[in-house]
Amino acid sequence: MADISPMAITATGLRKSYGEQTVLDGIDLRVAPGTVFSLLGPNGSGKTTTVKMLTTLIPADGGDMWVGGHNVIKDGPQVRATIGVTGQFSAVDRFLTGEENLLLMGDLNHLPRAEARRRCAELLERFELVDAAKKIIRTYSGGMKRRLDLAMSLMGKPSIIFLDEPTTGLDPRSRHTLWQIIRELVGDGVTIFLTTQYLEEADQLADRVAVLDQGKLVAEGTPAELKQRVPGGHISVQFPDADALDRGARRLGATTRDNDAFTLQIGGGSSAAEVKAVLDKLFDDAIPVDTVSVHTPDLDDVFFALTGHAKSETETETEKVSAS
Questions:
Q1: Rounded to the nearest 10 degrees, how much is the dihedral formed by the CA atoms of 129, 135, 136, 140?
Q2: Where in the chain are the domains?
Q3: What top-level class would CATH report for the domain 9-227?
Q4: pLDDT of 217-236, one tens digit each?
């Protein structure tokens, strides 16, 4: 049956097991073109396995998969011609130069030599690697290797790119540089399927986020929608002195207070209407206020609430069972 949806990526009833270990238990995915879709989950939850199946690297045990309008099971060559893949570990050849790595990818994509050289020059400039083009890869920094890795995946001008933990091990500056490149790619109409161990990364980049736990999708939505699903929003009011703090506490009732910082934390909500109601009460009694800030749950809170796991930035995903 032909896929008639306009989605860039569609998976229905996707299943995968290794022996008695069920990695994916009938998940459904829909990724709109020209967006960033981020798949989150605890260690061993199946994120990398999902990427490997969607990119034809390993077979699924069940379900249907469509990528770029092609059936993953029946039309593997067409799928591979449509996508680019950057894994969590650099795939560059460290004994070649940056330019040689890119030209090698041009050959693998069957590009005519002249077109490959033109494309290589474009990507070296775009990824700020022109000065390092003739240098051996083993002299590159980690950030340079990751940029080259992503550049290599773009040699064939894919419309869909799978990024499996692309910024693992990078310093904050290199990570933010790669974020900007990803935003530019999406601006050009490229679809990004992203797995990441950094929840901030998903929050910054993703149009939609899906949370995978124990082989099932436990939530999906925009980052803002997911944050609204968990408690934790509050209003923080800072007063100029202890007297104002005491008066504010009496006026607002039982709240969490920080005597050293002259601050009250008012739980229960953080909408604009709730902020106005708090300030109206204080101003009606002429209680001075220094600052007001609104705190909403972040994706760390969402992740913990949905999976029962705290997500550490030092974690890397290790599938419980090898795909090899």
A1: -50
A2: 9-227, 234-296
A3: alpha beta
A4: 998 999 888 887 776 678 89
